[in-house]
Amino acid sequence: MESYLLDWANLLLRWVHVITAIAWVGSSFYFVFLDSSLTPPVDEELRKQGVSGELWAVHGGGFYHPVKFNVSPPQLPSHLHWFFWESYSTWISGFSLFTVSYLWSASTYLIDKSRMDWAPAEAIAVALAFLVVFWLLYDGICRLFGQKKNGDAIVGALVLVLVCVAAWLACHWFAGRAAFLLVGAMMATAMSANVFFWIIPGQRTVVAQIKAGQPVDPIHGKRGKQRSVHNTYFTLPVLFAMLSGHYSFTWSHPQNWLVLILMMFAGAAIRQFFVMRHGYKLGRNRHPLPYALVGVAVIVGVAAWLRPAAVMVDSGATVSIAGSAKTASATGQNDYASVQAVLAQRCYQCHGEQVQMKNLRLDSAASVRQHAQAIYQQAVVQKLMPMNNATQITEAERALIGRWYVAGAVTP
């Protein structure tokens, strides 16, 4: 029953998380586009009011004319829309999903004993420390160098180094899939913290100064803008880290930390293309195509690097199955008895008579026949199971299951 309830919690939290993330990323991307596409106002009256930029757009059968005031508007409207619940809801739902999916069953999903053999409480504490420590270091870098000359370049370089170190540590300390997600959660936490600690407080201060009739300090807008820009470059790397859990060829690689770094770098480069593309259309900067080409080249290079090698079992090779020596010919075994021996040694611990994780039993021929496709996909194609390869299934054993499935998945 616990597994069933956790599955429901996982489903509903994932649903909420995706919805709120779409809202947050969508609004963030829109305002980046808006800032990059504003042009000086044509109307003299707008300029007198302090408008620094305007945009005409058409959407949904109507015309829109947003304007941006340089520091503050002449007066505040009765209703002012704020953008922060999208961020907070995304983080809350994401952290809840991380708790249900990884922290709740840390010994299964978070810990890979071949990397670090620590107690679940220790692994959970270190994982949570990643979220906190990364934010503190990132925030410290922004405070120290953000307002200096060439501050953006210095901050960018130092944050890149910080992310690389964090990715290396996570991939050496935790199970591969959990490590990728943890790095993504770490960066997403910094994004939401930017909104909570800097962007929204700065905006509230500006609003309070306007209401009090005081001069508005432009530093609040500059700091908020800087953190907002950081968030937009974090977005694609974070999304890759979150989605990569479904593709084991990324996080199961021996150098998975480098895979993660390269793919996040590619995402940031591609995001740079889209950010600068709006300015290019207005003649403000050169064509940003090289950024996109670099990002795509990195992705293509990683894909070529990770291409799977053919698994061949030569005639006469000895394969250990269920503790006994069995000889695999060039075609190899594909009978159910051989597959059952592999399942008994590698899978019954979690899907047997005593425990049925995900409500799945593999110790009966009928159940194996019913779930043959899922077994093939999880164990052979995606190599997601056994989780973190805790039972040390071999490539030859995966190949055996693959031959059995391709031959028709015959069971008694």
Mean pLDDT: 87
**Count of all domains:** 2
Q: What percentage of the residues does DSSP assign to strands (E)?
A: 5-15%
Number of strands: 6
> Which overall shape is indicated by the principal axes computed on the Cα atoms?
elongated
Low-confidence stretches: 311-331
Biggest beta sheet attributes = 2 strands, antiparallel
Radius of gyration: 26 Å
Distance between the termini: 30 Å
Helices and strands, in order, run as: HHEEEEHHHHHHHHHEEHHHHH
Range of helix content = 55-70%
- Give, in spatial order, the strands making up the sheet with the most strands: 1-4
Please count the helical segments.
16
Structural class: mainly alpha
Protein name: Urate oxidase N-terminal domain-containing protein
GO molecular function: aspartic-type endopeptidase activity; electron transfer activity; heme binding
Keywords: Membrane, Transmembrane, Transmembrane helix
Transmembrane segments: 12-33, 88-111, 123-141, 153-175, 181-200, 232-251, 257-276, 288-306
Explain how this protein is built.
Keywords: Membrane, Transmembrane, Transmembrane helix. It comes from Acidovorax delafieldii 2AN. One of its GO terms (molecular function) is electron transfer activity. This protein is mainly α and 412 residues long. It has two domains: 205 residues, no CATH class; 90 residues, no CATH class. Helices cover 64% and strands 6% of the residues. The chain starts with a helix and ends in a 6-residue tail after the last helix.
Reconstruct the topology from this structure:
Layout lengths: L1 H36 L6 H5 L2 E4 L2 E3 L2 E3 L2 E3 L15 H19 L2 H5 L9 H26 L5 H23 L2 H36 L7 H25 L4 H4 L4 H26 L7 H17 L11 E5 L2 E5 L7 H11 L1 H4 L13 H6 L1 H10 L13 H12 L6
Antiparallel strand pairs: 1-4, 2-3, 5-6
Helix pairs in contact: 1-3, 1-8, 1-10, 3-7, 5-6, 5-7, 6-7, 6-10, 7-8, 8-10, 10-11, 12-16, 15-16
GO molecular function: aspartic-type endopeptidase activity; electron transfer activity; heme binding
Organism: Acidovorax delafieldii 2AN
Keywords: Membrane, Transmembrane, Transmembrane helix
